[in-house]
């Protein structure tokens, strides 16, 4: 039923926000998210305030009742039974008020935390809903890291602010009421103590403003760090192949260092807040009674006790809850502003706005007339210009052209992702889309193909056959595949993406180069059986570089040099005029060398469930946590500071109270004044110093553990990233590190402070009234039993809550990667429901943790109430042997113990629960590590001089105990040879390169120029090889950063590289997009840069490898390759591709050797 309640509140918040956006547009102002939240929740949240108001009233009344009880002992008369009965009534009032405080306190906390959870869930829903609607311009203004940070840290501020918000108005009211009562008890002297509280309030307000400033800066730095982490995890193969681990570690360390400096300042402010709460009571009591005595008044136990108790009640509110409210409101306002800015980003227009109603399937059509559109108006030339064509049912339109001509942009315009600047775009029918970069979400192959549709077995079988998926994996289509399709090859992902589009049975099909990643045989099968088979009755737009299929097209659209287009009707002719394809090179005869290899299909790497520890948090974990922040000497000094602070504080309080409560103890005012001022000063100094050092140690621990975890992530083998979704990894770097940065240090310091205070209370009370230990010992036993019983449940619930967060981030990351596909398939609602389901599962675990915490706290308070009742009536029972001072001391500490004891035990449990985040971080610091980056054995400085590569009986598996992907590979690649590696999809072409790079350790011997690769360090090996990866990876930032991430080359070198990579008749088709421009856009040339630009800057003068499974016309960098081969002398180049694409070299680049991997059990060398 919880999810039904959430859906109701989510719908209300979304409706209010939509109304606010409309009203703001009419009033020409910015929408206010704060107004929306107030309008939605002010009624229910205001009612909760009644609980805390009644609670604070009882807190003010309780000291008055205790004062009346103490006056009975001051004027004790054994024969006055009326006074005894009256004292029993006061004792009953104290006991009942204690029980009432316990009940109201936990009712309040339960409801405010529940209110915070409602707001958090609603905000998460709105953030994800907005993410599904962002257009390309908006995506350039935000990052995955920022959205993850919004969902992990910013929304948590609502959980925190709702707890303390009511104290912004309860605090001043309570302070006014206490001042009236104090005036009645001790007269004008109370103004001296209240002046201290009034002085603290503007300081807390100043702290709140500083918190707001630090929170804004910290959030931006956290966005940057998580964005960088997201890019590192997404591009980990590239980083490992280029041996960029150390530079990226330095980059993340720099970002983290800036972030931690702001967090440290915020922590120091929290330390000052906590220290001021700790020392405020000592200062207030000292100043108040100094002024009281100087004014000629005589101290009595009842007056002192009532005053101290009233100060204690208002001190908790004014020096703890009120500053916390200011701090949390300041941080919440920053989070609200960040969320509002995200919600105000531009949204994509609906493709339905371009669509027309369709009566019959045969009426489906696409019409474009005089189309002009821009990805970026800053560019001199449009992305598409003067484009016109009409496509009707049963027609195939082939779109061809060089890289960057705007082929994908054309499909984006039809989908509504790119808004036309001028011209007409119309279509009749339902669209579906197969993207250029296949998007695979975590799940089974079947779920990826069905994509929310019902399973029709016959139709499903037809789609599988048409898309060549009948024998894709050993375990069939129910095999679970990893995040981003990590367990599938490029060709397999392309076929699954195509099958998803075909199964939708839409009216119009937009196919963005689905044949590029498959071999010739599979490509022919897909074209004949799928595109021209199952889909023959549909209008189809096919972007392709496979020119052999153009003869089957009804129309051909040629896009050239971004702005020029020619649309030609083939009329069934098999001939294509030569002048339209002058950019296509002649086929040449290739002499090739064929090697058949024994091969097995790539084994499936199952996605593992996230690990979750069991049992208690061991002492060794606490030691690791503290040792990460400081050495042993600093930790011993911290323990000593804690003891000094509390010993001086308790000695100040108890000595002063005993002297004041006991009329038979005579001491001069001067002696008392000097003693108190010395002890108070020591308490202030040690209290502030203790808090600052404690926070420094714990924040340093967070920084150290973060750096260790990131280092371990960089050193772990690639398989770790294949079996762990990206959201699971980001969860540790966002939510768990967020706990270590802020919540855990505050909770730990609070626990230590409360624990020492409890210890002092028990010791002092036992010294004055030894019999008080009689109820304390069994109560302590019950406390410890309850804590142990509670932690057995809450610890595992907290672990469950942490693991249920990961699917939320994984779903978000996956959705952002496949945003165009989701919108093309109109699956936003279904993905929103899936996100809400993940969030509901997490909320259920969090709500269970909330209710169990309240269960525990209520029972602790109940036990403390029993203790107060026993102490109160015990004093009456022993009235003949007790003096007023001793009774006041016993009762004051008993009442103090009510809240303090349960809070201390709860905080100890909360520390252990939060230590599960430390446990999760430490788990990732101990990941399996790959081979050393550097070893003692180093090759010669000029290695490799010749690029002579040998494979000798090489077997390769991606992980232990799995069948080999490559078996008994024996081959030789000689110097200066350009070697082509061809084979069917999934045959192991990429695995051959992985074995060379030692992404997993191969068996057998691989040597380069006679140096075994297994005997040298990974960085030594990888830095001497340059590779163009199969999947393009671009990092957010400038073009220069992507060309030369670590500023090792000049601008002239970069321009020369662009000239060779994007070779278009001597011109570089970048317009104004120079190396300093931002690369976070969707302009198509940047996709090729991700594959090709690194080749211009190899890590050595030796070996170069290419690994793009691309059709021939996209290999625009081959002229540079051939030229480089002549310049570098001893160079071996290995080029991997689907086969016939390698038979169509561009501009005369001819392969010396062909290396073929067929998917069958055979072995032949010739």
From TrEMBL:
Task: List the SMART domains.
Answer: AAA
List the Pfam families hit by this protein, alphabetically.
ABC_membrane, ABC_tran
InterPro entries associated with the record:
AAA+_ATPase (IPR003593), ABC1_TM_dom (IPR011527), ABC1_TM_sf (IPR036640), ABC_transporter-like_ATP-bd (IPR003439), ABC_transporter-like_CS (IPR017871), ABC_transporter_C-like (IPR050173), ABCC4_TMD1 (IPR030240), ABCC4_TMD2 (IPR047083)
Q: Where are the transmembrane segments?
A: 90-110, 163-184, 190-211, 272-295, 301-322, 578-599, 632-653, 665-689, 754-786, 856-879, 885-905
- Print the keywords alphabetically: ATP-binding, Membrane, Nucleotide-binding, Repeat, Translocase, Transmembrane, Transmembrane helix, Transport
Q: Which organism is it from?
A: Oncorhynchus mykiss (Rainbow trout)
Q: Which PANTHER family match?
A: ATP-BINDING CASSETTE SUB-FAMILY C (PTHR24223), ATP-BINDING CASSETTE SUB-FAMILY C MEMBER 4 (PTHR24223:SF357)
The cross-references to Gene3D superfamilies, in alphabetical order and at most eight, read: ABC transporter type 1, transmembrane domain (1.20.1560.10), P-loop containing nucleotide triphosphate hydrolases (3.40.50.300)
Protein name, per record: ATP binding cassette subfamily C member 4 (PEL blood group)
- Domain (ABC transporter) spans 366-586
An example of a Gene Ontology cellular component annotation for this protein is: plasma membrane
Where located? Membrane
Using the record's annotation, list all stretches that form the ABC transmembrane type-1 domain. 47-330, 632-913
The entry lists its GO molecular-function terms as:
ABC-type transporter activity; ATP binding; ATP hydrolysis activity
